[in-house]
Amino acid sequence: MITIYDLKPRFQNLLRPLCAKLVSIGITANQVTIFAAILSAVGGAAILFNPTSPVPLFLLPVLLFIRMALNAIDGMMAREFNQKSNLGAILNELTDVIADALLYLPFALIPGISAYLIVALVMLGIMVEMIGVVSIQIGASRRYDGPFGKSDRAFAFGFVAVVLVLGFVPVLWLNILLAALVVLSCYTIFNRAKQALREAGDLS
Hints:
The chain has 204 residues and is mostly helical. Helix content is 74%, strand content 0%.
């Protein structure tokens, strides 16, 4: 299934000159990874301490775009500038799920938004990434199958934030959307597991 992740190669081509510049001034891939996590923590804290303010929500899509760019940059720096490391691999996977939790869980405090659905989405998001990593243990590649991976979650939460700021959609509809995203997350877990088993030769 096509996801936003499939657009990553084109995005990387635009960022490649910036990667070279960062490397030339001594910035490492691991530093970029950690900075992206800190940025997410700051964004989540802004919503956490101001759940009724439109400002953090209005800025969230910008933050998510920057984070997506940083995630692409650290990967390119590791692969293309000989900065791969075991620590980097751990940081890349660990900070992604931590950053998601820090950034998205505060949505549970926004008036009208279902806290149960937000918590479910965050927990399922962790499971989605976990099954992607666990695939390596059975001899498959790191799975990024959709329909609702990391980039798609970022787009969805950015969309919800903008809609909340503009206020032209009833909050009930947003909760219905969140419920649909819970279903998509569950299917993504199933799909990644299925594709991993197929790649490993356990499914025909």
